[in-house]
Design goal:
The complex is a heterotetramer of chains A (661), B (312), C (476) and D (217). Chain B is mostly helical and 312 residues long. Chain B is built from 11 helices and 1 strand, in the order H-H-E-H-H-H-H-H-H-H-H-H. The mean pLDDT of chain B is 89. Classes of the chains: A mainly alpha (661), B mainly alpha (312), C mainly alpha (476), D mainly alpha (217).
């Protein structure tokens, strides 16, 4: 280590990564033996060490370079600064929740999982995500970025007996590799411009830096799952086991956004074109994500699509901060960057909570299809309570953290609407307020459906009827995250205080975050609880008139079976019919029977949704490559004479070109 | 002294006014149909009747059904305390536009979940329709309030609707547009006549009523009171908009202004009654066209808010 | 002269021993052991060069060893030793699975193996273009029987194509050597000379047009042997039909010899200060090879053919490194490729043996069948396609960095895209092999012994990736 | 232009090669090949008298091994696998012969491109370069157009001769060791090819190289 004095708490950070590395090595060696509790403990201790290290070296901006680990072009170098510690804190919290959740959940996976590889890949995944956030130069970033990608592909393919898991793993691997290729292109270009690999030397403010910044932006958009490139996300995240998809949706997607903030925003990029493009993509992915989330039957695919929406919101806030900084409104730029970072943190907590909830559901009912769930509130009360808290948080409803970050975004747009210089900018800002409220209402519909159909009403299958409550560890994990949601919601001013150094670095002038969040969430919560207590005690006294429990009202037909209950697709049918052209949504009905008009025997109804992007953009692209390869393979005909002809022709061409050159 | 008196009047208004306002609407509608109609205090007596009635709860429901009425009651009271739906409302806390919107959204979430909880088909499609309508009108609601806020350069409703807010003193056009946008959105939000006939008993056509089929007894009392107060708040807000549109009112002294605001609320309620008497319930598939009018009003007020600055 | 004998003593003795000895089981073990001894001998011999004490070791007229050549000799000997060590368990496995070969085949195989090592080491030692040509031609002749070991129809066809195309190709390299020799006669060297150090010393006086023709013919000749895109057609056949240890040596060591020939001639052209055309041509050919190999990799049906095309891709990358003109990059990319590729061929030999078929269609569920083998195959595949923690990532990034200049921006873009396509293609095929339910007839075999050598190689590649400090390859 | 004996020998080698193109009988092809190699040996003898004495030794070895040894070996193999004639060619034999002559003219034009040999006593080196290039082209033609494996070996040997002729005419004579090494490699190459011919005959029952197309993508 260079001679500089390294504060002791940084050693805590390294020890966390050391623990995870040891865990990975140990997991590979123990192979098939089921040591889930042990490895959960190792993961938890790593997370706590990480948290401790972060708190220890909070204000300082320490950086270090390793002398012996060298990746050819640059050493393994790291740096802890407020921006990195925010995301590391998210990693630590999600990691500890996953550690608590895993033993109970993995027991249910049983033989379909190879414990050694699973835990090894999980440790590698956590370690590489941490290092990507900490990396100070492009080479370390790339190395751990690829390790993160590969380990998450292997984790998605954990239950690879199923064909869909294999297919999703391969699609995801292809998508991440293309994103890495774009990043490599961008880094090479920036290295050529600045002559060094360290992020601190890179300045994207110059005009020449527009193209590399665009390359970086595209690469990170693919990894974050922004609109046209999000196609892999609904495949990859649901197929992974619940703890892994919680980490992927909650934390890995944020790592891509962290990189965007670190490289493009803090790098000083002032280009308006890139920011406007980002804004458009973000808006479309917000609307697109939540619309498709509404249409999903599979609970985890619903959550994956909602990740696309939230990532869109975060990108919108980031793009706004770049635009506002270019328009010389530093205070508003700081506010929008605060909204972006805070929403990234919040989304990390409540999306992990929702995925863990879905995992608990999956482990007790062995299905994720909403049309086979229902009535789980009765026998899974704790999971339902936590999932409900997550849903309230993600729909940005007041007391919780989701509302706080969305409110900051609203405030940015609202203030831009009257502080921006030109009329079009003001119109766009106010328009975005409208779009944001539309997205808010859609996500409310989506999660009302998720909670309502999955947990409430009558159980739609006997698996749902016989569901048992998740184990203590699983509930503890969900409760921890639910507590985080509430805590983050109530401590907003303090958290904005922690973000202040990052904001001032981005806006290049001191930022006071006191006036950012003026809503007294605690007062509202207290008033709400008080009034609720008043309502229950005064109006619903127990010894009041008789409280009779009876069958649900069914117009006198007697207790109707669960089939008459509202299902997920019928809940979202009205919305789907309004957005039908966008969703390529059409309902296909077929009536069978001798006299179809009067005495239909069988009526079959199917919802057909053409995957628009895949059909018209991605499948033709893949087919083009296949075609190219098929054409080129015709060169290998097998005849020796043709091969000799190739040799002589190449000779002629080389001689002719050589003489001319 | 006046502060205590103002609190007293306001609380008395909050407790009694909601059932009475529903009564007024029904009375005006009956009068238009040449019926004497029940007295305006009839809803109040209904509430008292519910208080003493027995309650039936479906055994399918979970804790959400029993607590959603209570949560909604708390939320609507908080909204009533924040939103300046009448001028004599004492200041409690800063009523931010987006906070209010999302408090309404929280109420909607709880109602929808309660409806789904009983596991009945009516609750299900009622919830689905409620959510679809909410999705269409929320942008309109937000944009109306936001356009007012943009011109008065603040997102605190109390400052926007206070008569000391000079930025909006000479903008009657904006007030009218925003007011009518708000009025139409509240018609949809409260599922009044053109959207859903509150007096229908055919479950298939219901939107709001379908969701509260399962409630009975004291639960129903809470739900009815919450709905009435929400009605009052929303119509009160659009009433304030129309009141601000009238230029001379800005010069009146404070006491007269609060009285005028109370009067405006009553007039708006009467307006709703008249409108219910005249119009007929639209088919579910034609509703988006009706809502399009509310959205157009909102977009017009946005245009005025953005372009308006050019004029002044 | 003594050092020359010392270097070639062990291979020669082993060659005669394997021809004479009766029991092939003992021959296999002895050869494997002695080859590790050969590594020690070469290591001791080459140590002063590697540790920086000396920059040049000339021990006979027309024979000298510089630091780059020393590294390559060490690499080649290690690759052959690893292949031989693994061959022991591989052939034991073959016998178990019923492919009985009569002992005569083993005699020829091991004799040719040792002579093959000798010929390859000679390429790096010779300082004379003529001797380099003779050694490269000798490598072709000695590796033909290695490819033909299985005595099947396909192996025969592959050997015939390999022999004929490579011999014709190398004949043109001879023509190139003649032209270089002729160009030296016009210059200051009265009698003309093929000695490289002398040629480099007098390079500016050489006749430019003859030298240019000579370089082009040598590039074509050794390029055919290395498998550059339009001339690569024999390579997939030869590498997929040869037995696993043989194809490991072909891919891991032989390609480096052919490329070393191009490197030597390019040093002469560079010394003559008219090397713009040479670099341009080599870089363009290299990029073309990488792009073509990446596109080939998309549709593959046989397991070992896929690795052959991946070798072609790496040959392209090495050519770009030569086109940039840095010996360090050349050796680094060759080293990282050899480490990963030898491990891969040995592993795919085991898997093809256990699964009974080489077609990708029939291979699935290796992960379930034998986890250690699956893990190693995954790591080795990552290593060869340039995934970060492994060495190939370092060398590829170095190549990208030095080619990412305004002059060569198109080359850099094509390389980055082609390497990405190759990664996705290879990992899709490997993914299909690893994942899924285990094949019913996947014969169990002793995983530990079979995965010892590939494991060591993968760890070597990992070490090359993580501890790759530029000071190691500054002087190359 | 009067041709010296050295140039005559060199030209006759290329002419014999063009004659070889005309027939598809293996035995006559080998006859032409040995004649052509004898001509080259003679040319080396003549060059030897002007330049280094070691050319005599090389001329003798070429005469013994390449002119006599290889043809006898190949004829023995042809008899063992009874390959009498080529199984048909991509280009009819007479046409390829005329193409050979055309290539002789082309190589004469091309030879002017190559720089002149400095102070070469034996007349202009253009004749030598022309002969070498035409021999090379004929060898390539044989390899491309003939189907059976044994003609491919003959084609390879003719290319080898062409390259040797280049070395002879364009330079003052390659170093002794290099020449010996090249000769050894060619011999071992031909022997291995011959052995392979037996295997092909045994396993494929034909030696038609154009049907060896099993290995393709």
């Amino acid at each position: 280590m260079a001679g500089v004095l390294i504060p002791h708490s940084v050693y805590l950070l390294w020890s966390a990564f050391g623990v995870w590395g040891a865990g990975a090595a140990g997991a590979v060696l123990t192979g098939q033996k089921q040591y889930h509790k042990l490895y959960s403990g190792v993961l938890l201790s790593g997370c706590l060490l990480l948290l401790g290290g972060l708190i220890g070296c909070w204000p300082a901006n320490t950086s270090w370079t390793s002398d012996f680990v060298f990746f050819g072009l640059a050493p393994l170098a790291g740096r802890v600064d407020p921006l990195a510690s925010v995301f590391l804190a998210l990693l630590a919290v999600s990691g500890s929740a996953v550690a608590l959740f895993s033993p109970g959940y993995l027991a249910h996976l049983g033989q379909r999982l190879h414990p050694g590889f699973y835990w090894a890949c999980l440790f590698l995944f956590m370690l590489s995500m941490g290092q990507v956030i900490l990396s100070a130069n492009a080479i370390t970033f790339l190395v751990f970025w690829e390790i993160m990608a590969v380990s998450s592909v292997l984790l998605v393919a954990t239950d690879h007996a199923r064909h869909s898991a294999r297919l999703s793993a391969l699609i995801y691997m292809g998508a991440t590799r293309i994103s890495t290729a774009l990043l490599v292109g961008g880094f090479l270009w920036l290295n050529y411009l600045s002559g060094s690999w360290r992020f601190s030397d890179w300045h994207l403010s110059s005009a020449a830096a527009l193209w590399p910044a665009a390359l970086l932006f595209l690469g990170l958009c693919i990894k974050a799952g922004i609109w046209p490139f999000h196609v892999w996300l609904p495949y990859a995240h649901p197929e992974a086991p619940a703890p892994v998809s919680a980490l992927m949706s909650g934390v890995m997607v944020k790592v891509a956004l962290y990189a965007m903030v670190r490289l493009i925003v803090l790098g000083g990029s002032g280009s308006q074109i890139l920011a406007y493009a980002a804004l458009c993509l973000a808006t479309v992915s917000a609307v697109w994500g939540v619309l498709f989330a509404l249409m999903e039957r599979d609970l985890k695919r619903l959550l994956a699509h909602s990740t696309v929406e939230n990532v869109g919101l975060i990108l919108m806030a980031t793009a706004l901060s770049v635009l506002l900084r270019a328009a010389h409104l530093p205070e508003l730029a700081a506010l929008s960057l605060a909204a972006a970072l805070f929403h990234a943190l919040n989304h990390g907590t409540f999306k992990s909570l929702l995925f863990l909830g879905a995992g608990a559901l999956d482990s007790s009912t062995h299905t994720r299809d909403l049309s086979f769930l229902g009535g789980l509130a009765r026998n899974m009360p704790w999971t339902m309570a936590c999932f409900f808290t997550g849903a309230v948080a993600i729909c940005a409803l007041p007391p919780l953290n989701g509302f706080a970050s969305k409110w900051l975004l609203y405030q940015t747009l609202f203030h831009t609407a009257f502080q921006a210089a030109t009329t079009p900018e003001r119109a766009i800002a106010l328009g975005l307020v409208g779009v944001l409220s539309l997205v808010g209402a859609l996500s409310l519909a989506c999660f009302a459906k998720a909670v309502g159909i999955a947990f409430l009403g009558k159980p739609r299958s006997d698996a749902a009827a016989r569901a048992h409550e998740a184990s203590a560890g699983m509930i503890a994990a969900q409760a921890l995250l639910a507590g985080c949601c509430l805590g983050l919601g109530l401590l907003v001013p303090q958290i904005l205080e922690c973000l202040a150094p990052v904001l001032s670095e981005a806006v290049a002038e001191p930022v006071v975050t006191a006036g950012f969040f003026t809503i007294p969430q605690l007062v509202i919560l207290a008033a709400g609880v008080a009034l609720f207590g008043l309502a229950r005690s005064v109006v619903l006294r127990a010894q009041g008139p008789s409280l009779r429990s009876y069958v649900t009202w069914e117009c006198g037909y007697g207790d109707l079976p669960a089939r008459t209950e509202e299902t997920g697709s019928s809940f979202s049918q009205p919305i789907a019919s309004i957005f039908a052209p966008l969703l390529q949504y059409n309902v296909w009905t077929e009536i069978k029977g001798k006299d179809k008009r009067h005495f239909p025997e069988v009526i079959e109804v199917k919802v057909l949704m053409v995957p628009f992007l895949e059909r018209h953009l991605y499948q033709p692209a893949v087919a083009a490559f296949e075609e190219m390869s098929k054409a080129l393979v015709r060169v290998q005909t097998g005849s020796i004479h043709l091969y000799l002809l190739y040799v002589f022709l190449t000779l002629l061409v080389l001689v002719w070109v050589g003489v001319r050159l | 002294m006046t502060e205590f008196f103002r609190w007293l009047v306001f609380l008395m208004f909050v407790v009694l006014a909601p059932p009475v306002s529903v009564g007024i609407i029904r009375k005006v509608k009956a009068r238009l149909q040449n019926r004497i109609g029940a007295s305006i205090f009839q809803p109040l007596f209904d509430l008292l009747k519910f208080y003493s009635k027995g309650e039936t709860v479906s055994e399918v429901t979970s804790w959400i059904f029993r607590s959603s009425a209570g949560i909604n009651f708390a939320l609507v009271l908080i909204i009533a305390l924040l939103v300046p739906w009448v001028q004599f409302k004492p200041h409690v806390a800063s009523a931010d536009i987006f906070l209010v919107i999302y408090l309404f959204a929280f109420m909607r979430m709880m109602t929808v979940l309660a409806a789904l909880d009983a596991g009945s088909a009516f609750g299900g499609f009622g919830a689905s329709r409620e959510v679809t309508l909410a999705l269409l009108i929320e942008p309109a609601l937000v944009l109306c309030l936001a356009s007012l806020g943009v011109v008065s350069r603040t997102s605190d409703l109390e400052q926007i609707f206070s008569f000391a807010n000079l930025a909006l003193s000479n903008q009657p056009g904006l007030w009218l547009l925003a007011g009518s946008g708000l009025f139409l959105t509240s018609l949809v939000e409260l599922s009044r006549m053109p959207v859903d006939d509150p007096t229908t008993h055919l479950e298939l056509t219901m939107v709001h009523e379908a969701m509260i089929l399962e409630n009975s007894g004291r639960n129903l009392l809470l739900v009815e009171y919450t709905h009435a107060l929400k009605l009052l708040v929303l119509f009160g807000l659009s009433a304030q908009c129309f009141l601000h549109a009238i230029a001379p009112v800005w010069q009146l002294p404070a006491v007269l202004i609060s009285a005028a605001s109370g009067g405006a609320v009553l007039i708006t309620l009467a307006l709703v009654g008249v409108q219910e008497g005249l119009s007929v319930k639209l088919r579910w598939t034609r509703l988006p066209e009706f809502i399009a009018y509310a959205v157009t009003m909102a977009l017009l007020s946005v245009l005025v808010a953005i372009a308006g600055r050019l004029g002044s | 002269m003594g050092q020359l004998l010392l270097l070639s003593a062990i291979p020669l003795i082993l060659a005669f021993l394997s021809l004479a000895a009766a029991d092939e089981r003992s021959v296999r073990r002895i050869v494997a052991a002695m080859l590790w001894a050969q590594i020690a001998v070469v290591g001791w011999f080459v140590a002063p060069l590697l540790l920086g004490a000396q920059t040049l070791l000339s021990f006979a007229p027309d024979f000298c060893l510089d630091r780059l050549g020393a590294c390559f000799v060490m690499l080649t000997t290690t690759v052959v030793a690893c292949a031989a060590t693994h061959a022991d368990t591989f052939f034991a496995g073959e016998a178990e699975h019923g492919h009985i070969h009569n002992p005569a085949h083993f005699k020829i195989f091991y004799a040719c193996l040792n002579m093959f090592l000798l010929a390859m080491s000679a390429v790096f030692i010779c300082d004379n273009l003529g001797y380099i040509w003779i050694s490269v031609e000798a490598t072709t002749l000695f590796s033909a029987p290695l490819v033909y070991f299985d005595r099947t129809k396909n192996a025969l066809e592959a050997t015939w194509k390999y022999l004929i195309i490579c011999s014709v190709g190398i004949a043109f390299a001879l023509l190139g050597t003649v032209f270089v020799f002729a160009s030296s006669q016009h210059g200051a060297i009265v009698q003309g000379s093929l000695n490289i150090t002398k040629l480099v010393a007098h390079a500016s006086e050489l006749d430019y047009s003859l030298l240019r023709l000579g370089f082009i013919f040598c590039l074509l000749g050794y390029g055919t042997k290395a498998g550059i895109f339009p001339l690569h057609s024999w390579l997939p056949d030869a590498h997929s039909e040869a037995p696993a240890p043989a194809s490991a040596m072909l891919s891991g060591a032989l390609l480096n010899c052919a490329l070393f020939g191009i490197w030597r001639v390019s040093r002469i052209v560079v010394a003559s200060h008219h090397h713009a055309f040479a670099y341009e041509m080599v870089t363009v050919l290299g990029t073309l090879t990488v792009v073509a190999a990446a596109i080939f990799l998309i549709r593959q049906h046989s397991f070992k053919r896929m690795w052959a095309y991946s070798s072609i891709e790496n040959v392209g990358l090495i050519l770009v490194a030569i086109g940039i003109g840095s010996g360090a990059l050349f050796f680094l990319q060759a080293l990282n490729h050899s480490l990963a590729k030898v491990a891969l061929f040995l592993l795919s030999g085991n898997i093809a043996q256990a699964a009974g078929s080489k077609r990708l269609h029939d291979l699935h569920g290796v992960w379930k069948a034998s986890p250690p083998l699956g893990l190693l195959l995954a790591l080795a595949a990552l290593a060869v396609t340039g995934a970060p923690p492994f060495g190939a990532f370092v060398s590829e990034m170095l190549i990208f960095q030095s080619s990412a200049t305004p002059a060569h921006w198109l080359v850099a873009t094509l390389l980055v895209v082609a390497v990405a396509i190759a990664f996705v293609a290879v990992m899709t095929h490997v993914g299909r092999i690893l994942l899924g339910g285990a094949k019913a007839d996947f014969r169990a075999f002793k995983p530990v012994l079979a995965s010892l050598v590939p494991g060591a190689l993968v760890i070597g590649s990992l070490v090359m990736g993580v501890f790759a400090h530029p000071r190691f390859w500054e002087g190359l | 232009m009067t041709l010296s004996i050295y140039e005559l020998a060199v030209l006759s080698a290329s002419i014999l090669a063009i004659f070889l193109l005309g027939t598809t009988y293996i035995r006559t092809n080998l006859g032409f090949y040995s004649a052509q190699t004898m001509a080259i040996a003679a040319a080396t003898m003549l060059a030897g008298s002007q330049r280094e004495p070691h050319l005599y030794v090389i001329a003798l070895i070429i005469l013994l091994l390449k002119a006599v040894g290889i043809p006898v070996f190949l004829i023995w193999i042809a008899d063992r696998i009874d390959a009498q004639t080529d199984a048909g060619t991509y280009l009819p034999a007479p046409l390829s012969m005329h193409l050979g002559i055309l290539l002789l003219g082309a190589s004469y034009i091309l030879s002017s491109e190559l720089p002149m040999m400095l102070g070469h006593g034996q007349g202009s080196s253009r004749i030598g370069a022309t002969a070498a290039m035409s021999l090379l082209f004929s060898g390539i033609l044989v390899m491309l157009t003939r189907r059976i494996a044994i003609s491919q070996i003959i084609g390879f040997l003719m290319i080898e001769n062409g390259i040797y002729l280049f070395a002879l005419t364009q330079t003052h004579g390659m170093p002794m060791m290099v020449e010996m090494g090249i000769l050894l490699d060619v011999l071992v190459g031909v022997m291995i090819a011959g052995l392979l011919l037996f295997r092909i005959k045994k396993s494929f029952e034909h030696i038609d190289a154009s049907q060896l197309t099993q290995l393709k993508d």
